[in-house]
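FAQ

Q: What does a record look like?
A: Structure on top, sequence underneath. For example:
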């Protein structure tokens, strides 16, 4: 069973990938949050989520390292299953 965070701000966001005002991209579009989703999350939490940084930099390096660990932990091979959300997000970040 997955760990459930009772006060997570993600629970308050609309988890939709279709329609106007959607907060997440579909896996075919590259996964991740839309600008509207980031704005809603930042408003709710007072955070400062930023868009992906595919051109390089420390945020990209950190994301690529974390997502590689997730792929290894869950035994995901993107060459065999390229339609997984983690694979799409890594392509969007150019990992």
């Amino acid at each position: 069973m997955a760990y459930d965070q009772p006060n997570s701000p993600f629970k308050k966001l609309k988890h939709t990938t279709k329609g106007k005002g959607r907060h997440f991209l579909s896996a075919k579009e590259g996964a991740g949050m839309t600008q509207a989703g980031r704005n809603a999350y930042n408003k709710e939490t007072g955070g400062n989520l930023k868009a992906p940084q595919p051109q390089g930099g420390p945020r990209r390096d950190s994301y690529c390292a974390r997502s590689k660990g997730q792929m290894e932990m869950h035994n995901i091979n993107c060459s065999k299953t390229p339609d997984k959300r983690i694979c799409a997000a890594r392509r969007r970040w150019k990992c």
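Q: Is there anything notable about this one?
A: Residues 9-45 form one domain.
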